[in-house]
C-alpha cells in the first residue's frame, strides 16, 4: 500500500478592505450632511427674543414646546404626564446637564410652567428658557 503525500502550496489569502472603507466613508459623509438639517430640539420653535440671551452648549437637555402644545424631548414626542420620568432618565445619563426649555412665543404659559415644574421634580435645578438674542430696541 502506497501512501501518497499531498503537498499543498500555500496561497496568499488576504481580505480586501477597500470596499468596506468606501462604505464607511460614504456612511460618514451621509451622517455629516444629515446632521446639518436636524433641528436642535426636534421641532421648529419660534422663540421670543431677549436682549440678555446667551448661547449654551449642546450638552444641555432640550425641551421643545410648540404653539400647538406638543412637547418634544430628545427628538421624541412626550406627554406632559411622562415628562418627569423622561427627564429623570436623561438626568441619569447627563447628571450635570441643565434643562433648556425652547417654548414657542405662542405656546401656553401654563404648559411652560408645567415643564419647568416637572424638571424641578426630576431633580434638575438648572432650568432655563431659550430666547433668540434681540437685535434692536423694541424687537419681539
Question: What report would you give on this structure?
Answer:
This protein has 140 residues and is an alpha/beta fold. The protein has a domain at 49-133: Nucleotidyltransferase, domain 5 (2-Layer Sandwich). It is 30% helix and 16% strand. It is built from 3 helices and 7 strands. It has helices at 18-35, 83-93, 109-121; strands at residues 49-50, 61-65, 71-73, 76-77, 99-103, 127-129, 132-133. The strands form 2 sheets. A 5-stranded mixed beta sheet has the order 4-3-2-5-6, covered by helices on one side. A two-stranded parallel sheet has the order 1-7. A hairpin with a 2-residue loop joins strand 3 and strand 4. Helix 2 (83-93) crosses helix 3 (109-121). The radius of gyration is 26 Å and the shape is elongated.
List keywords for this structure.
single chain, 140 residues, alpha/beta, Nucleotidyltransferase, domain 5, 5-stranded mixed beta sheet, two-stranded parallel ribbon, 3 helices, 7 strands, elongated
Summarize the structure.
The chain has three helices and seven strands. The protein has 140 residues and is α/β, with parallel strands linked by helices.
What layout of secondary structure does this protein have?
Elements: H1 18-35, E1 49-50, E2 61-65, E3 71-73, E4 76-77, H2 83-93, E5 99-103, H3 109-121, E6 127-129, E7 132-133
Parallel strand pairs: 1-7, 2-5, 5-6
Antiparallel strand pairs: 2-3, 3-4
Helix pairs in contact: 2-3
Main sheet strand line-up:
4-3-2-5-6
**CATH top-level class of the domain at 49-133:** Alpha Beta
- Category from helices, strands and their pairing: alpha/beta
* The CATH topology of the domain at 49-133: Nucleotidyltransferase, domain 5
Total count of helical runs of at least 4 residues: 3
Calculate Rg over CA atoms: 26 Å
Q: What's the β-strand tally?
A: 7
Shape: elongated
Main sheet, how many strands, which sense, barrel? 5 strands, mixed
Stretches with pLDDT under 50, minimum 5 residues:
none
Fraction of residues in H or I helices: 25-40%
Distance between the termini: 101 Å
Helix/strand order, N-terminal first: HEEEEHEHEE
Average pLDDT: 78
Strand content: 15-25%
CATH architecture term of the domain at 49-133: 2-Layer Sandwich
Amino acid at each position: 500500500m502506497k501512501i501518497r503525500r499531498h503537498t499543498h502550496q500555500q496561497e496568499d489569502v488576504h481580505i480586501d478592505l477597500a470596499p468596506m472603507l468606501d462604505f464607511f466613508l460614504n456612511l460618514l459623509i451621509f451622517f455629516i450632511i444629515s446632521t446639518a438639517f436636524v433641528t436642535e430640539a426636534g421641532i421648529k420653535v419660534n422663540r421670543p427674543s431677549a436682549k440678555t440671551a446667551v448661547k449654551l452648549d449642546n450638552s444641555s437637555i432640550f425641551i421643545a414646546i410648540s404653539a400647538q402644545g406638543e412637547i418634544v424631548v430628545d427628538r421624541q414626542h412626550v406627554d406632559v404626564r411622562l415628562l418627569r420620568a423622561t427627564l429623570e432618565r436623561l438626568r441619569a445619563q447627563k447628571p450635570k446637564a441643565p434643562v433648556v426649555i425652547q417654548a414657542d412665543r405662542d405656546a401656553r404659559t401654563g404648559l411652560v410652567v408645567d415643564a419647568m415644574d416637572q424638571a424641578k421634580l426630576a431633580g434638575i435645578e438648572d432650568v432655563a428658557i431659550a430666547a433668540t438674542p434681540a437685535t434692536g430696541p423694541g424687537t419681539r
